[in-house]
Amino acid sequence: MVTSYHSTRNKGIQAGAREAVLTGIASDGGLFVRPDLGTEKADLDRILNQSYQENAAYILGLLLPDYTEEELKQAVAAAYTGTFADEAITPLKPVGDLHVLELFHGPTSAFKDVALTMLPQLMSIALQDTEDSAMILTATSGDTGKAALSGFRDVNRTGIAVFYPEGKVSQIQYRQMATQQGSNVKVFAVRGNFDDAQSAVKQLFLDEDLGQWAAGQNIRLSSANSINVGRLVPQVVYYFEAWKQLVNQGVIGRDDKVSFSVPTGNFGDVLAGYYAYRLGLPVKKFVVASNANNVLTEFITTGVYDRNRPFVKTISPSMDILISSNLERLLYYMTDGNTEQVAAWMQELAETGRYEVTPEVLERIRSLFE
Ligand SMILES: *Cc1c(COP(=O)(O)O)cnc(C)c1O
Fold first, then answer.
1. 269 CA to centre of ligand 1 in angstroms
2. Catalytic residues, which ones?
């Protein structure tokens, strides 16, 4: 095992990529990160000349060093053959002066399909090292649930339970989830909002009694939320794909920088863009788009993260999130891996619902994100 990942809150809590994919969250509640992210850059010319599938295997290889090339090729083939309605997987379309990356051609029409067709493959490979099976526990604000249920449906040695906030997902999402077929799937309604569901699921992972019981049954508890690196890294691929299509369609030159505007909730999608940037993608800015639950807009403007505010139920429930989990990974990188500092902020967030980053960290964030 290559110990390539450690917790955002403690460098001593380490895991290889396979282990990180199986566990989902670090034992101290932190998220798994690679300290050397982007030391090895992606070869942009190679990316311009490869298919989506080839690029996926290549990029995943850079981010998940202890999966073999052969394993990743198989995982990519299983995830992206016959599952997406467009052969480009994520085609780029001009709309006025802008371009839109169409992420909705997957089996459940959620952009999360791109990652959730891949994650079960990565888990299934990692499980081969063990005698274990995996129980996936996932909170959803709507789209993740269906895409995860669909991705894990009848996948060997896995089971999945999805928790959604009752009355706070759309009718279509509710029906998609409630009618999911499969021998290993289960859906639960939770009283509260998405943050309540996500916090409760995070608690389950840290619950010692449950952990011991599961270990006794050779069951791994894991997550399909974007706190899992196996969920995050497949999303890095389509940022390169967007750039590739812009260059190959003659819209921009090879070295021109691209800005990405990303509808944001848990900060997973836009963070995947940041990973692409660290791997060498020419990026100008990431626009972190929020809805009325604009805790991130405020954070990137003022440096104060404050979840003490009314939760607004909107027509974009996937963005109705006040605790944006993956921001923790960005804080790790923006403090140059200062795990003590990140742990302190996260503790403040848990205790008071608020923390404030230093002016230097805010400046660094603002130089790339708006
Ligand atoms: C999940 C989702 C988001 C939020 O993505 P994050 O990775 O959680 O930031 C935004 N819009 C839609 C439609 C989604 O499904």
1. 7
2. 112
* DSSP 3-state of 309: coil
CA 268–ligand 1 middle distance (angstroms):
8
Phi, psi of 184 (to 5 degrees): -125, 25
CB atoms within 10 A of CB 181: 9
Q: How much distance in Å is there from the Cα of 326 to the middle of ligand 1?
A: 12
Residue nearest to atom 12 of ligand 1 (CA): 318
Name the residue with the closest Cα to ligand 1, atom 1.
Answer: 318
C-alpha 327 – ligand 1 centre gap (Å): 14
Q: For the chain, list the domains and their CATH numbers.
A: 232-366 (3.40.50.1100)
Q: For residue 165, with 0-12 CB atoms within 10 Å meaning exposed, 13-18 middle and 19 or more buried, which class applies?
A: buried
Task: State which ligand 1 atom lies nearest to the alpha carbon of 267.
Answer: 9
pLDDT tens series, the chain, 370 aa: 567 999 999 999 999 999 999 988 999 999 999 999 999 999 999 999 999 999 999 999 999 999 999 999 999 999 999 999 999 999 999 999 999 999 999 999 999 999 999 999 999 999 998 999 999 999 998 889 999 999 999 998 999 999 999 999 999 999 999 999 999 999 999 999 988 998 899 899 889 999 999 999 999 998 888 889 999 999 999 999 999 999 999 999 999 999 999 999 999 999 999 999 999 999 999 999 999 999 999 999 999 999 999 989 898 888 988 889 999 999 999 999 999 999 999 999 999 999 999 999 999 999 999 9
Our mutation pick for probing the ligand 1 site, out of 260, 264, 321, counting the most ligand atoms within 8 A of Cβ, is 264
Ligand 1: list residues with CB < 6 Å.
Answer: 110-112, 143, 226, 263-269, 318-319
Environment class of 192 (CB within 10 Å of its CB; exposed 0-12, middle 13-18, buried 19+): middle
Atom nearest to 269 CA in ligand 1: 7
- Report yes or no on whether pTM surpasses 0.70: yes
Backbone dihedral angles phi then psi of residue 138, each to the nearest 5 degrees: -140, 130
Instruction: Give me the residues paired with residue 304 across strands.
Output: 356
